[in-house]
Structures
1.
Amino acid sequence: MGTRQSLDFFAIGSMVIFCIVMASQQVMLKAVAEDIMPVFQIALRSGISAALIILLVLLQRQRMPLAPENRIPALLIGVLFTLEFLFLGEALSQTSAGHATVFLYTSPIFAAIGLHLKIPSERMSRVQWLGILVAFGGIVLAFLGGDSTETLSSAVLWGDFLALLAGAAWGLTTVVVRASGLSSLPARQTLLYQLLVAFILLTLWSYMTEQATLNPTPEVWGSLAFHGIVVSFIAYLGWFWLLTKYKAGQLGILSFMTPVFGVLMGNWLLGERIESNFIVGSGLIIGGILLVSSHGWLSKRREKAGKMV
């Protein structure tokens, strides 16, 4: 499976762009929810992205063989990917885009724990574990520490819980990819398995729950184009490529920037309220990110300092 390197400036810059793109998707899903239900939109965007990947593969005349031992993991990541966005889509009907983004991005916690148990090279140091605790504490403070009626609403709390389940599904997807032969496959191949399964299952779910309706407004078409091309095609391919080069645990922790962007966008575009406890919580989130993502750089600095002595 190979050894992944620690984060560098290129990885950090790429993750900033990735986080901005990913933060905007919940906001856009919520913004057009009256014209197309989030789960159905996610199903359609998965189909659009899968078609684009298949077209790309055909144009480049590439083959994508799947070894027998990778068939079950491929199906498993497809199911986990489907669950992630099923939970997220349902969460957006109950809670705000900001809340959904924050709890979705608890995924690094689940991924880091799973990778720590499964892959020796991905074991976290004490400082990195402290970073996870600090970042998670920041999330709890930012969104469970308020005293507004909205925060205490049972519907909002249920939506938050669904978004948390989405985060767990995403984290487990990362573990399956890294702990199996899928980690050696091209990113587009791994992504295609997830998109195809999600398209089929989420479309079936949408029809079964009578959510498969669409009001073809310009905003809906724009949202579908953004999600299908930018999010599920370009951004996801970039994410999986980064996973083949850098340590997944550190990339996952860096994605804690996304909740900050998500909440700010929700406030700016949807008028969602930002409570004072979010300011403190976001500071803890960023602090946790720095503790984890700077670990590799600090280790190298200590090694160089030791050699100079």
2.
Amino acid sequence: MPTDLDLQTAALRSPGQLEPEGKRPEREFVRFTRLQRALHACMIVSFLSLATTGLTLKFSYTGWAAMVSRFLGGFQVAGFIHRTAALLMFGVFITHLYNLVQLKKREHKSWRALLLGPDTMLFTRQDLRQFLATMKWFIGMGPRPQYGRWTYWEKFDYFAVFWGIAVIGSTGLTLWFPIFFTRFLPGSFINIATVIHSDEALLATGFIFTVHFFNTHLRPEKFPMDTTIFTGHMPLAELKRDKPLEYEALVASGRLQEHLEEPQPEIVVRTIRAFAWIALSIGFSIVVWIIYAMLFAYK
């Protein structure tokens, strides 16, 4: 069993130098639980389905939308897939909230301690300071900030789901059940909901497949793909480089060993990479379709 000193020494090397070439590291840092990885995978499937089917309806007058729609079985089938994917996303969101309640019970914390503790997903002054420091680092006016468990852009991505469920989800339900909602809302709200649902979904899709993809996969230290959210593991050297404050806190508390596990089997990693490459390819294709529709065929 390696000691903390051994682990710290190994982490000082670059990720490619952790172990001799051809030999996998004995243990890796566990960043995400199995449930978190499963929820993210379901989120990917639901979002890709919603984006693909929704955009074929929004840009139905374009050649690519008609082609994709025929591949899916027609616009009516695309609508069915869209609503099924929406239910899956609602299920992911509710499951996550339930898991937060269970986490609070397991750790015997108050909501205040859970939401405002050192690993909070809420934005803090530290996030603002790190954002400003990052902007200075980008233009060579300062060192790279020392990030903790969650960076400001990860928190932004996290709460984007809450925003999407509130705005896109609520308007989508209004369009799905117009008779029910017009019992207590004016009929004109259906037109308003159509505009909000369509434009906010377009904005979310463009953001996810550009900014989010860059932050998670296309940054130089991650390119061409970051598999941490899929495998749940990351090398210790990568943890020390990307999350130095979290690494130092774990070493200081003597809890680093608790978060180490054997690497995922090679067949699992290859399967995960295949799934991730398919998702990335679909996402980048959608960006190209959106740009084409907006520049050359928008009505």
3.
Amino acid sequence: MGLLQELQERSGHQCELCASKDNLSTYEVPPISTGGVDGTILICSTCKEQIEQPETIIPNHWRCLNDSMWSEFTPVKVVAWRMLHRLKKEGWPQDLLDMMYLEANELRFAEATGDHLDESEKIIHRDSNGAILQAGDNVVLIKDLKVKGSSMVCKQGTAVRRISLDADNAEYIEGKVDGQHIVIVTKYVKKL
């Protein structure tokens, strides 16, 4: 059974957030680490557009979270939590957040993108040119780098695919080079 079929079966062929039955598609919940059923939800085009383009958010559409926040499925709860945090200035979402409960691992997943932080509190990772880096981006090294604790030297021009961000420090990203997982300082990379 494919991912789409599993999600359709799990959701009853409706959006897992607003219960719409129109224009459904899969949505991998960032940061995309688990994928599969445990990291993906089935959502309608309206929800997807407003999640991916925050400037298009229509607050009343998201009153549906009053129901979907109680889902038994982690990725649905995570997206509901993130959207409630984006909307908390509206007033009513804060009441729902006060009622919502996430297990420790679910809360770590939900906080991974920083949606719960105000703009002034967010850690923003930037490359050597000032471009904003996001989890899953591809970068290239702009100088030769010695890897601490090994004899490995990463050469200038080496591509690092699908980076992950250090949640505590804007100067560090992580990625794999020649099969080895390393930490890289952001001032030595350029976004592809």
